[in-house]
Amino acid sequence: MWQFSVDGKPVLCRARVSARARHVRGMVHADGRVELVLPRRFRLSEDDLHRLFAQHRPWFEQAIRRLRRVPRQALTHGEESMRVVRQRTETMVRAYLAELAHRVRFSVHEIRVRPYKTRWGCCRLGGRLSFHYKLCLLPRRLAQYVVIHEVCHLFHPNHSPRFWAEVRKLCPDAEECRRALRTYVP
C-alpha cells in the first residue's frame, strides 16, 4: 500500500490481483481510494509496482481532482428493505421497457436487479439486462436514461458513435442525463 497527496490531501493506493483482469488497470473509487488492478499472470516485485504506480500517478491525480470537483450523493433507502426496493426497481424497469417497446423493436430475455458496486446497468449477450437495485431511487428521467442506455446496447454492444446516436434518438437530453448521473453513487 502506498500513500501520496493530491492538493495536500492524502490518498491511499493499493495493488490488487484479479483473475478476470487481462491488462493493468488503474481505478479511482467513489470514496477516493485508488487501486492498481493486476492480472494474475503478472509477477511484479515491490520496485516494479512502485514504477507502475509512478507511471499511472498523473492519471490518478487527474481522476481524483475530477471526483472531488463533482459532489456526489449516495442513495439510501432508509427504512425500506432491500427486497422492497429491488421489487420497486424491477416493476419500474419493466414499465419503462414496455413504454420503449412502442418506439423501438427489441428483445429482452431476462431482467435482473442486483446490488452492483459501481454500475447502474449492464447488458449481456442474449438480451440479458441487469440493473442496480437502487435505480428506482434516482430521479425518474435519470432512471429512464439508464434503461434506454442498456437497451441501446442490445443493438450496439459498445460505445461507438452509432450507439450514442441511437441513445440520443431515444433520449434527446442524454448528455445532460449522463452528466447528472455522475453526481449519484449507487
Radius of gyration: 19 Å
Largest sheet: 4 strands, mixed
Low-confidence stretches: none
Number of DSSP-assigned strands: 9
Number of helices: 5
How far apart the termini lie comes to 26 Å
Task: Walk me through the structure.
It is a single chain. With about 190 residues, the chain is an alpha/beta fold. The protein has two domains: about 1-70, no CATH class; about 80-185, 2-Layer Sandwich (Zincin-like), CATH 3.30.2010. About 40% of the residues lie in helices and about 25% in strands. It has five helices and nine strands; from the N terminus they run ββββαβαβββαααβ. It has helices at about 45-70, 80-100, 140-155, 160-170, 175-180; strands at about 1-5, 10-20, 25-30, 35-40, 75, 110-115, 120-125, 130, 185. A four-stranded mixed β-sheet has the order 1-2-4-3, covered by helices on one side. A three-stranded mixed β-sheet has the order 6-8-7, with helices on one face. A two-stranded parallel sheet has the order 5-9. β7 (about 120-125) and β8 (about 130) form a beta hairpin. α2 packs across α3. The longest helix has 24 residues, at about 45-70. The chain is globular and about 60 Å long. The chain starts with a strand and ends with a strand. The mean pLDDT is about 90.
